[in-house]
Specification:
alpha+beta; 7-stranded antiparallel β-sheet
Length: 463
């Protein structure tokens, strides 16, 4: 029998994680059959771009890992729109995924991924939430997809004519690093000879052009329960701008934006403890994306049971204080309400929405331990400015109806002081930012530790 003291201690742990008893953990041993985000490298597309003059086809080899737990099946999730700052961006044309494969990193075996039993799938302009048929572990001679196993989503896709657009990642990874390969080409003069193979693409004719990736995400069903899976909702800081370092080791994310959120989706970065997620962060991101764009984005929240939101930086400029932030706070609360109202499974873990604090924003060199080489970006970012008022408003809203239930606080790891009345509260710790707004790798990892610890606490809670 659980003692009253133990029950009290457990309840305190739940509340500290921003949830109620019965909402944590992994969901027990019963298979629930829910499709959940399966990889820590699931990014939404962030740019609408033409494939290039004369080029209307593209191939890619994108790394994915099995995250959050063992899986009984996996599927590929695609769409034909992009998350573009504060708006949803449409390409204006359809795109055809002609061939898709799931490739084992261990053996190089390529298993076809089908859509309604067909090898190809044409997505109309703006089409959302298209999920492939199931790929079973038996196709690879396995009994399950085990957590931390690495695969690649390998594809050939095309638009109807040269100059038409595709929805692409908002970054360009270094070609070949950790199995990442992507090209565009003109099929009249170039033939890719190993679309259904593994490793670098080979070709005949005119050499293809290196290019950004289409967004192909891995989802799947867990062998048991409903382990925690995550959405990152925010701007360029959530996306990972500023964190493009070889310090990411063998994560497969070298030369790709990583950021604190994607770092936190690993216990041991790139090696073990992968978590399934979808990253909606995008440069210039702001609240209208989750109000005006809710019809396109909210359907993706059924693939996660936890979300972390961090909008706000792009509200505030170098200008004078307005002295009121009711518009900004109410806008965030509207986004929270939209996120929480999205259709989600009625079984599995109850959905949890967390909010983060903002970091400082300064100009300078950030090299001095006392912050003396930094200046606030503007009055809004100084003591008592609009940014302070904004965070006060969000802190007061946490836990109220239709709001985030927990605040993830980066103050102690990013700021020179935790006293909001202190000028040093509004200055970065030494060498943590890359440009005064975005964390450098060291700053991203400092925040990732905070998020990772919160995830650990959440996942450790018993059903």
């Amino acid at each position: 029998m659980v003692s009253a003291a133990t029950r009290k201690r457990r309840t305190a742990s739940y509340i500290g994680a921003g949830i109620l008893p019965g909402q944590g953990g992994g969901g027990g041993p019963t298979p629930l059959g829910l499709l959940r985000a399966a990889s820590p490298t699931n990014w939404m597309a962030g740019a609408v771009l033409a494939l290039g003059s004369g080029r209307r086809k593209t191939v890619g080899n994108w790394p994915v890992w099995i995250g959050s737990g063992n899986m009984s099946e996996v599927r590929v999730l695609i769409e034909n729109f992009a998350v573009a700052g504060a708006n949803i961006a449409l390409p204006g044309n359809s795109i055809t995924w002609e061939e898709v494969y799931l490739v084992s990193d261990l053996t190089g075996q390529a298993v076809p991924v089908l859509f309604g039993g067909q090898a190809s799938r044409t997505l109309t302009n703006g089409e959302i939430d298209v999920v492939s048929d199931a790929v079973l572990p038996s196709a690879f001679g396995l009994t399950k997809f085990s957590r931390d196993e690495k695969y690649y989503i390998r594809y050939l896709a095309s638009v109807a004519s040269s100059g038409q657009n595709a929805c692409l990642h908002n970054f360009s990874p270094a070609y070949g690093q950790f199995g990442m390969y992507s090209h565009t080409f003109d099929p009249a003069v170039t033939t890719i000879t190993n679309v259904n193979g593994s490793g670098p693409f080979t070709s005949t004719g005119t050499a293809p052009t290196n290019n950004r990736f289409l967004s192909a995400k891995l989802v799947g069903k867990f062998v048991a329960g409903d382990p925690r899976t995550y959405a990152g909702i925010g701007n360029s800081i959530m996306e990972g701008v500023g964190d493009r370092s070889g310090a990411l080791g063998n994560s497969g994310l070298v030369a790709v934006y990583a950021g604190y959120f994607m770092r936190a989706m690993w216990e041991n970065l790139g090696v073990s403890g992968a978590r399934g997620c979808i990253n909606f962060g995008l440069s210039g991101g702001n609240v209208p994306l989750w109000t005006a764009g809710a019809a396109s984005l909210n359907p993706y929240l059924k693939y996660v049971n936890t979300a972390i939101e961090e909008y706000g930086t792009n509200f505030f400029t170098t200008g004078a204080n307005a002295g009121t932030v009711s518009f900004q706070v109410n806008a965030i609360k509207s986004a929270w309400a939209s996120i929480l109202a999205a259709d989600k499974p009625t079984t599995g873990r109850p959905f949890i929405l967390a909010r983060t604090t903002l970091g400082p924003r300064t100009t300078g060199a950030w090299a001095q331990a006392d912050g003396s080489d930094q200046t606030a970006y503007g009055p809004m970012w100084e003591v008592g400015g609009d940014v302070d008022l904004y965070m006060d408003g969000l802190r007061a809203a946490i836990g109220t109806a239709n709001s985030a239930s927990v605040l993830i606080d980066f103050d102690s790891v990013w700021r020179l002081s935790t006293n909001k009345a202190d000028v040093l509260y509004h200055r970065w710790k030494q060498n943590l930012p890359i440009d005064g707004a975005h964390p450098a790798p060291a700053g991203a990892e400092a925040a990732a530790v905070v998020v990772r610890n919160w995830c650990d606490q959440l996942e450790a809670l018993a059903a």
